[in-house]
Amino acid sequence: MAAEAVGSLIFNCPLLENLTLSLDHYDGWNLNMCAPNLKDLCLEGEFKKVCLESPGVEAMIISLYVNPDEFQEDFEQSLGCNYVKFLGGVPNLISLCGRAYFTKVN
Fold first, then answer.
1. What is the SS3 assignment for the chain?
2. Residue 32 pLDDT class (50, 70, 90 cuts)
3. Is the pLDDT of residue 28 over 70?
4. Which among 3, 36, 40, 44 could bridge 63 via Cys, Cβ 3.0 to 4.6 Å?
């Protein structure tokens, strides 16, 4: 439910140009985001699925938290879709920085 509320909030802010979304828990979100005027995006946390429709994004930083016990099985699924499809939602992307943090929560 929280992910839906965030997606709706972003959609209803048509002048939004810069967004940093940081999750500090390890539940994983399914995030659907449509932000036509967004230029800079930073996503940090554990995401099960991210669908992005933001054609104006020029710079993106994605920092994913990955459990090393599940890395081989779930790494491609960490964005919930193949990367070509994911990056297709940001056709004007100029700068991309990706980070993976291996964490183990007991």
1. CHHHHHHHHHHCCCCCCEEEEECCCCCCEEEEEECCCCCEEEEEECEEEEEEECCCCCEEEEEEEECHHHHHHHCHHHHCCCHHHHHCCCCCCCEEEEEEEECCCC
2. confident
3. no
4. 44
Q: Give the span between the Cα atoms of 40 and 12, in whole angstroms.
A: 17
Whole-model pTM: value is 0.73
Give the pair of three-digit tokens for residue 66. 């990955």
25 CA to centre of own chain:
15
Tokens coding 84: 């070509």
Residue 9 reports pLDDT greater than 80: yes
b/e code 12-34 from CB counts within 10 Å (16+ = b): eeeebeebebebeeeebbebbbe
